[in-house]
UniProtKB/TrEMBL annotation, chains A, B:
Gene3D superfamilies to which the protein is assigned, alphabetical: 3.40.30.20, D-Amino Acid Oxidase, subunit A, domain 2 (3.30.9.10), FAD/NAD(P)-binding domain (3.50.50.60)
Domain Phenol hydroxylase-like C-terminal dimerisation: 413-617
Protein name: FAD binding domain protein
Gene Ontology MF terms in the entry: FAD binding; oxidoreductase activity, acting on paired donors, with incorporation or reduction of molecular oxygen, NAD(P)H as one donor, and incorporation of one atom of oxygen
UniProt entry tagged with the keyword Flavoprotein: yes
Pfam families reported in the protein's UniProt record: FAD_binding_3, Phe_hydrox_dim
């Protein structure tokens, strides 16, 4: 079918992204990485320079690292090791109630850090700038959005039309609205945020370099004080972010003149008897706590919303930027897979299926966090009494903080069964009406959760014994990752099972064979096959293994980093993969999506199920 | 005194560096870092593109990291974990004799890696390019060198004159000849390399991407074969470097036509029954083994020689680039200190005193290495018999390789007592006629070797509990580092000793007080003071400690990273500093030079000795 009003080719894109904040730039990073013709438009004239978000969770750093972007961000950022709870007692003394870890050792090779949003955007922009396929237009706003209904089901067509304030018109296959809480895109779609936009009080935010004798100024602190509750977030270099609860009259005054002295005065009182002054205020603002959610993340699988456009909440848990970037990290490879013709457009509905529950959870979590911090001013236990009507939502503040470092840090986000995430095999191995394939055998890998990002382990490369975090070998290239846990392949019987699997994966006329071939024409949607065995690496010869585990390419030579041994050596923590993953000696096959989330776990013999899984969304 | 023939100001430099290889660029990195007006001239038109050196030892990576340069080099490089010895037996089978570690876990946070010299130069050039004070002139050769003898003792004068092939004349205070084995600078000074320039045979060098079934192609290998001995060095990406011993007729042929097929043919024979082919040869050359040394590293403390200009040897141990960069790393801060007026020119003689013994050791080591590798072709034990006349120099090849990973890796280079390295206190605490101060009390820190780089340990930052490798907090800024090991300062008596020391360091009219002041006008030559205590960090309040440990600066705020606790937490290996360094409970003071080498160890009470140490070279 031919679209009659085809605009000039230069104004036709595969993807248009509205908004160049963290969500929009993460989407653009995917498109740059996968060579998708993309336009980013942003109202502002340049990236964020000061202020705004500043918290990066470990999962976000893992994601950035999968594009090679974590190194410098990790180095520039501030690592927050501990969180301290303080309160002003009735005699006016400031007392430290507790010091607890603010990180999650063992869960990730990264941990929570803080760094100004602008410096993160800068790194993402540097990455995007290297791609000839992604262009950014600053100082550009959309004026009109039109979805051509006659084309909307034909995913090869540029069904979405956008008129810009420059009076030019662009056509695109997909549009992503990453334009913040007041999202223009969302409004055009007739959608709105549900929930209260206020109700938990006003908070001032202040970024400055303080001079103080408060002993925990370089730790994350929550201070309950009659003068106003305060949160302290140490930042990169010597910056500190303060959240200051504002009495109504101060909020009114501050809204009017935006003078940091208002915040500094309350802060000074809250920290007494310690002193705090500053000669350098970098940024300040005010916000009103509210948790709001849009329940529609996409419209007709053509227009998608992400980040603040679909969920707004307080900044207290440092979650916003993370969930926003993780939204588009979830979406990017799916769009690219459809655009490259390696997946049907049916996979696009998983965006809403997967990210809406995450947003709902975030909203609930933030409400608990706010109640814990905003409540009263004297002592946590008293607060909880006062909040009896919210009791179901008020676990203690300390538990909430601890949850932030584990489940809320993005590491345990678990996508529900859908077209791209199988369910546990209880009914026979068949898809249900939603396309969910019931096939996984989770007892084969007890600690790998279907739908969740694969936990990281250290393994030794068979070819050169170098220790690698397995995740470092699973970059975001749009490829799927098929991990064959072959067990002790120094035993002939086990090696034969692995060899039989390799034959199955490459048998003619299968869907998998071309996907697993090293010379696949496009990386996006292909399958990289890895072998992680538990034999001594000295009892295994790489060149005796099936060729699928040592792919060869005329230009770059052999890929030597697809076979790993779960052996001790050269780094503490090596040799624990099978036990950490809970993998039985008979081994198993684990399929990871391009975003490192687990799709299925099946026995080594079950290539048929793999085949069936892909057949549900790979065009024939 | 006024210099009469003062040339135009634009052609006057503090430092001129001849040669932009690794040695020259490391010197330029120092000058860029310390804002010294510098000219680098290089005959070639650009940096190295392919081939040449490729081995980086852990100490070199530590040095690069002290300028913030290790991260990307570490990431791009190939880590060589294991070294394998093979030989062709009498039946023509290729047998693996041994696999041993090729790294030194625990000795450094880095390990040996390989990366093409050009990519290392590229990173150094990027660093230098950011400085407005250092300029590089490519395609420029020196024509004439003149040391103005009437000015040579006046270190404020530009006593060195250099005429360039562009017919311009430059004047400089100091000249560094980093112009390689055929050094023009060395020849101008009438100096030569001593030693044999040949004698151990000819070797071909080949960088290529091989296709092979040889199982250890991604490990470092030494293969003894009748066809010719071979060394395999895996490199970045999929490159491999081969060293191939050439029979005389092949050497002649290869010298004539430089066709890699000559090398590939020998290589193919040496690896039989395994196959090896390549479709991509990146670089090849031939060299003749010889060990040569120039015993004069400087002339009149105005002209300095470094790198291949003073020591040439085989590339077999991957040492050359390391020792060359370490030469100028030793020299750079000394020149800058004299130029900034914070040290007398007397310190410049320590360059020769410190680096000549390193070069001598390198030459001896390389000779052992060559004998081990070049000898015979059948079997190591037989070779050693044949080399009876060299017996004193032929420890086994395996021991030599192991030595490379420990002592030869630069980590254990120990500078002898001199003006900047004290000797152990046996005579009274007085300098001898060479300016050596006998004052150190090494039993206070049993495992810190005077004259050697400080071993690295993990410590927790007092202000925020972040684990740091101590070395990461000792960057190359031209500053000295005074480490106060205060012991358990939660005990009043121990805290009082630390407070008394702080008073001594800041008493009026001392040499140390202005050096230790945070507002010192120049970083170069000043002293950063650190406290590493063994109390629980929860029993210590940063703000209760003497101000010298928490310096304040109006612009950047407080320096929170000068006090560390030797406590467990957040990373394996924390809490071991006192025991690893062998520091007694009473603590001690350790002074490190700007290059992290230890100058002295004295008791907490002995600020007088510190004062005396600096008084020997700090101008009053």
């Amino acid at each position: 079918m031919i679209c009659q009003d085809q605009p000039a080719p230069s104004m036709v894109f595969d993807v248009v992204i509205v908004g160049a904040g963290p969500a929009g730039l993460m989407a653009a990073v995917w498109m740059a990485q996968l060579n998708i013709k993309t336009l980013v438009i942003e109202m502002k004239s340049c990236r964020t320079l000061t202020g705004h978000a500043d918290g990066l969770e470990s999962r976000t750093l893992e994601i950035l690292d999968s594009f090679g972007l974590a190194g410098i961000i990790w180095k520039e950022s501030n690592r927050t090791m501990e969180v301290c709870l303080w309160h002003h007692d009735s005699r006016g003394d400031l007392c430290r109630d507790s010091v607890s870890p603010n990180c999650n050792p063992g869960l990730s090779r990264f941990q929570e850090v803080t760094l100004g949003q602008g410096r993160i955007e800068e790194r993402l922009l540097e990455f995007i700038d290297k791609s000839p396929n992604v262009q950014i237009k600053w100082k550009t706003s959309p004026q009109e959005l039109l979805i051509h209904q006659d084309l909307v089901d034909l995913h090869r067509e540029h069904a979405v039309e956008l008129r810009l304030d420059t009076d030019s018109v662009v056509r695109t296959k997909y549009l992503i609205g990453c334009d913040g809480a007041h999202s223009w895109v969302r409004k055009q779609l007739g959608l709105s945020l549900e929930g209260k936009s206020a109700g938990n009080g006003d908070w001032g935010v202040l970024d400055c370099i303080p001079t103080t004798d408060f002993p925990d100024i370089r730790k994350r602190c929550i201070i309950k004080s009659q003068a106003g509750n305060v949160m302290i977030i140490p930042r990169e270099d010597n910056l500190v972010r303060f959240y200051v609860q504002l009495p109504a009259r101060c909020a009114t005054r501050f809204r009017r003149d935006r003078r940091p002295s208002v915040l500094l005065s309350i802060l000074g009182d809250a920290l007494k008897p310690y002193y705090l002054v500053t000669s350098h205020v970098e940024w300040c603002t005010i916000y009103t706590v509210g948790q709001r959610l849009c329940r529609d993340f996409s419209v007709q699988d053509r227009v998608f919303l992400s980040g603040d456009a679909v969920h707004t909440h307080s900044p207290k848990a440092g979650q916003g930027m993370n969930v926003s970037m993780q939204d588009t990290y979830n979406l990017g490879w799916k769009l690219a897979s459809v655009l490259r013709g390696v997946a049907t457009s049916a996979i696009l509905r998983t965006y809403q299926e997967e990210r809406l529950p995450v947003a709902e959870r975030l909203i609930r979590f933030d409400r608990r966090m706010c109640l814990g911090i905003c409540s009263g001013s004297d002592h946590a236990s008293a607060d909880r009494e006062n909040l009896a009507d919210f009791r179901d939502e008020t676990t203690g503040l300390e538990e909430t903080l601890s949850e932030e470092n584990t489940t809320a840090s993005g590491l345990s986000v678990t996508y529900p069964p859908n077209l791209l995430v199988t369910a546990t095999r209880i009914p026979p191995s068949q898809p249900d009406k939603h396309g969910v394939l019931y096939c996984s055998t989770p007892h084969l890998a007890k600690n790998i959760v279907i739908g969740r990002r694969l936990p990281d382990v250290l393994v030794l490369c068979q070819s050169n014994s170098q220790p690698w975090y397995l995740q470092e070998r699973l970059p975001s290239t749009g490829q799927w990752h098929l991990l064959v846990f072959g067990g002790d392949i120094s035993k002939a019987s086990q090696l034969q099972r692995v060899e039989a699997l390799a034959r199955q994966l490459t048998r003619p006329n299968s869907i998998l064979a071309p996907l697993c071939m090293p010379g696949a024409t496009t990386t996006v949607g292909s399958v990289a096959v890895y072998l992680i065995h538990s034999a001594s690496r000295f009892d295994v010869q790489l060149m005796n293994l099936p060729p699928i585990f040592r792919p060869y390419d005329d230009r770059r030579g052999r890929e030597y980093r697809r076979v790993f041994a779960d052996n001790e050596g050269f780094a503490p923590g090596c040799g624990m993969a099978y036990s950490l993953y809970g993998i039985a000696p008979e081994g198993c096959v684990v399929l990871l999506r391009p975003d490192q989330h687990c799709s299925l776990v099946v026995p080594l013999e079950d290539a048929d199920t793999l085949e069936r899984f892909f057949s549900l969304f790979v065009p024939v």
